């Protein structure tokens, strides 16, 4: 997908959907959260339709770096990704790998990622 200002929100939703699907299923709480996000996000009709597809089946993590974001926004995306990973009250090894990949895509140093992760209740391996 070509990167444009209006598609940045869609790319962030894609990241969160990829994390939610990382364990192979979309729990009801994950589905509801993503559905509400898609419903209320500032998206075009085409983007909203594309985002709705993220609820239907596993989503791949975007291959592009989200470099247009400020460091603070990148940390916010990572923090939200961490929360998405535990919204179903489970944190799997697959979700750990997806978060590590997200951290790298966002260019967040490992120490900063660890600090963010300590702020997210339930983000521990079971």
- Mean pLDDT across all residues, rounded? 85
Q: What is the total domain count?
A: 1
What series of H and E elements makes up the topology?
Answer: HHHHHH
CATH architecture group name? Orthogonal Bundle
- Number-wise, the strands total 0
Largest sheet: none
Alpha plus pi helix count: 6
Radius of gyration: 14 Å
CATH class: Mainly Alpha
Give the CATH superfamily.
TerB-like
Q: What is the CA-CA span between the terminal residues? A: 35 Å
Low-confidence stretches: 1-6
CATH fold name: TerB-like
Instruction: Estimate the global geometry from the Cα principal axes.
Output: globular
Question: Keyphrases for this structure?
Answer:
single chain; disordered N terminus; globular; 60% helix; TerB-like; 126 residues; mainly alpha
Detailed description of the structure:
60% of the residues lie in helices and 0% in strands. The chain has one domain: TerB-like (Orthogonal Bundle), CATH 1.10.3680. The model is unreliable at 1-6 (pLDDT under 50). It starts with 7 loop residues before the first helix and ends in an 8-residue tail after the last helix. By secondary structure, the chain is mainly alpha-helical. Helix 1 (8-21) runs antiparallel to helix 2 (28-40) and helix 1 (8-21) runs antiparallel to helix 5. It has six helices and no strands.
């Amino acid at each position: 997908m070509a990167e444009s200002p209006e598609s940045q929100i869609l790319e962030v939703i894609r990241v969160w959907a990829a994390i939610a699907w990382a364990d192979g299923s979309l729990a009801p709480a994950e589905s509801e959260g993503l559905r509400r996000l898609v419903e209320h996000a500032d998206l075009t009709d085409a983007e909203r339709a594309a985002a709705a597809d993220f609820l239907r089946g596993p989503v791949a993590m975007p291959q592009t770096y989200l470099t247009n974001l400020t460091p603070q926004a990148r940390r916010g995306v990572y923090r939200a990704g961490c929360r998405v990973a535990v919204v179903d009250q489970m944190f799997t090894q697959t979700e750990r790998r997806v978060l590590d990949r997200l951290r790298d895509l966002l260019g967040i140093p490992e120490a900063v990622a660890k600090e963010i992760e300590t702020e997210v209740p339930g983000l521990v391996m079971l």
